Amino acid sequence: MRVLVIGSGAREHALVQALRRDPGVSDVVAAPGNPGMAGQATLRPVDPADAESVVGLARQVAADLVVIGPEVPLVLGIADAVRAAGIACFGPSAAAARIEGSKAFAKDVMAAAGVRTAHSEIVDHPGELDAALDRFGPTWVVKDDGLAAGKGVVVTADRHAARDHGAELLENGHPVLLESFLDGPEVSLFCLVDGETVVPLLPAQDHKRVGDGDTGPNTGGMGAYTPLPWLPAEVVTEIVTEVVEPVAAEMVRRGVPFSGLLYAGLAIGQAGPAVVEFNCRFGDPETQAVLALLESPLGELLYATATGTLAQAEPPRWKDGAALTVVLAAENYPARPRSGDVITGTEASTPDTEVFHAGTAQRADGALVSAGGRVLNVVGVGADLTEARARAYERLAAIKLAGGHYRHDIAQAAVDGRISIPARV
Ligand code: GLY
């Protein structure tokens, strides 16, 4: 099987690598890809947001399967165009991708499916902002009601900060979503979904704030780990049966069946799991850790999802142990990341680690340089989280990037036993 992966981040790099491990995959083409993928995939230029460009490339490389990584092309309907060209595509239609593209649509689906989520209000006029803020708090959750790569979210106990963020979004023409704050540890559960068939992958936890101890602004994600030693298996089952399956069924009922990866971001509170957000694609950086433990052939699973045969596929098998990923970010990320800094030390391989490229580029003289906010991901795999952490951080210590920064506490709270789910009321 020839697979074309669309995207250029560490998530797509991890997908490329996992596809290479699948004996049923003969070739992987990544477009536009990144310098780190060059040894594992043929890199081809593409405009991921342009249907003609993606379909043209899929035909040129005779792709049997197109895997679309990021949300923007999905929301724009690129998967629809690939399928219309008669090529199997892993990724939802534009209509189904609204589960991520419009938070108002997601709330409506959840309400119809009886799924617990935060109470929310949309504000689309500056004159309504203060009164709406008064109906929320003492912790305010202020979101951009569109795609913002995690950076459009401010969670704060400071009403002025909440107001400033809401006002700035409105000034830039973005409707604001205010939400009640959901308490409890967060879980990312990725599910392969083909209509009403739902197959969960391992649960993971992201670290969204930029600084150690969950301080500083929200980011696209600074690190993640899997599995979650503090999350009982029955809660994963509960998420599947009481959250993801009802949402998948509701989308079928509406005539917009979901096909691809449905990412449920949840908080596990006193009343049980509640949805923070749905995304229509693999999460970044959780995917880099989750796929590190996948033993089953990834191409087979994605192809089965894309062709409506997921119910007949063998369920995924997983390695024992744990995996975590740490993100190396550029100076000034997430505000205005600096680009063009030389990166060294990525080749100094150590056992059970991987380096995935995210925001990197090759300079004319061949040097590897930073070219984005999140620059690299270092993944460590071990018998448990302690070993996986030690391996990832050891490998990261050998990588040099001027001004680069990363969190030192990825999975530390789980290792220390400081995460527990509240007793049910
Ligand atoms: N891990 C956050 C995201 O992928 O949106």
Automatic annotation (TrEMBL):
Could you state a single Gene Ontology molecular function term?
A: phosphoribosylamine-glycine ligase activity
Q: What class of enzyme is it?
A: ligase
The yes or no answer to whether the keyword Lyase is present is no
The reactions it catalyses are: 5-phospho-beta-D-ribosylamine + glycine + ATP = N(1)-(5-phospho-beta-D-ribosyl)glycinamide + ADP + phosphate + H(+)
Which parts pass through the membrane? none
Which cofactors does this gene product need?
A: Mg(2+); Mn(2+)
Gene Ontology terms describing biological process: 'de novo' IMP biosynthetic process; purine nucleobase biosynthetic process
Q: What is its EC number?
A: 6.3.4.13
State if Nucleotide-binding is listed as a keyword.
yes
The residues covered by the ATP-grasp domain are: 107-307
Give the signal peptide as a residue range, or say none if absent. none
Xref: InterPro entries: ATP-grasp, ATP_grasp_subdomain_1, PreATP-grasp_dom_sf, PRibGlycinamid_synth_ATP-grasp, PRibGlycinamide_synth, PRibGlycinamide_synth_C-dom, PRibGlycinamide_synth_C_sf, PRibGlycinamide_synth_CS
Q: In which pathway does it act?
A: Purine metabolism; IMP biosynthesis via de novo pathway; N(1)-(5-phospho-D-ribosyl)glycinamide from 5-phospho-alpha-D-ribose 1-diphosphate: step 2/2
Q: Which keywords label this protein?
A: ATP-binding, Ligase, Nucleotide-binding, Purine biosynthesis
Family statement drawn from the similarity comment of this UniProt entry: Belongs to the GARS family.
PANTHER family referenced in this protein's UniProt entry, alphabetically: PHOSPHORIBOSYLAMINE--GLYCINE LIGASE, PHOSPHORIBOSYLAMINE--GLYCINE LIGASE, CHLOROPLASTIC
Q: Which NCBIfam families match?
A: purD
What is the protein named? Phosphoribosylamine--glycine ligase
Originating gene: purD
